[in-house]
Amino acid sequence: MFGRITPIVKNLLIINVAIFLVPTFLNMDLGRVFGLYFIYSENFKPVQFVTYMFLHGSNMHLLGNMLLLFLAGPMLEYSLGSKKFLILYMVTGLGGGILYTAANYAEMSAIKNDVDRYISAPNSQSFNELMVAHSDNVYNQNIYLFTDQYSRNENNPELISRSIGYARGLYAYFGNYPMVGASGAVYGILAMLGLLFPNRQVMLLILPPIKIKYIVGFLIIGEIFAEFQRTPGDNVAHLAHLGGALFAWGLLRYWQKKGGVFS
């Protein structure tokens, strides 16, 4: 797991770091253009299923993904060969985007239904329930003050109109928030390691040797828990991570049926 750096891993590290530094020189937010948007957003383009995986939202986001790629990638590239390793990286990155998009579609459909239901019969209680159910980070102090004002004057036409604007803005906010990161591809690499070399032991800092299957299992279970017990303010695309792992399993099965993983 800690072997010498291999060609594809090295090039992926360079590409990801270079793209992260581009906005510094061009003074532009690449994530707003090439991040993965909701498929019905006016900002969505199919190419974003590829471009999103080479973008990162912060120094720590980049560092975490690149560190895992650096540690886990060389062993897998050496075993699979550079061609299959690159295929794995791209397929699992796409898989992360696909699963995230499918879940995002279901979530956005639910939000749209609730927004449409509110607009058809607006009242202060329904508005408060809508905001509490879906707003998360956008439920700020201004919304809180407006909700209080609206509850005291819910028949005021101006307040009703503003509440409808807030409701529509809620749908627009979530529909225009791009997802970025190589985590789907990185989790695909980790999952493939766990599937191919489950009992191989690695050293993690001062801990005793640990089998890869336990490390990967812990990470995937953690992602499942984090997704279904999501805390307020958690903007991590856990389903993209899980999608990468799931597509790694599917790709492994495909290779096995086509004549072998290491052929």
TrEMBL record:
Keyword Heme: no
InterPro entries: Peptidase_S54_rhomboid_dom (IPR022764), Rhomboid-like_sf (IPR035952), Rhomboid_protease_S54 (IPR050925)
GO cellular component: membrane
Keyword Glycosyltransferase: no
Primary localisation category: membrane
Pfam families: Rhomboid
Keywords, in A-Z order: Hydrolase, Membrane, Transmembrane, Transmembrane helix
Compartment(s) where it occurs, according to its Swiss-Prot or TrEMBL record: Membrane
Recorded topology in the membrane: Multi-pass membrane protein
Peptidase S54 rhomboid domain mapped to chain residues: 47-106, 171-249
Molecular function (Gene Ontology), one example: serine-type endopeptidase activity
Transmembrane annotation, as ranges: 12-40, 52-73, 85-103, 177-197, 204-226, 238-255
Homology family: Belongs to the peptidase S54 family.
Record's protein name: Peptidase S54 rhomboid domain-containing protein
Organism field: Roseivirga misakiensis
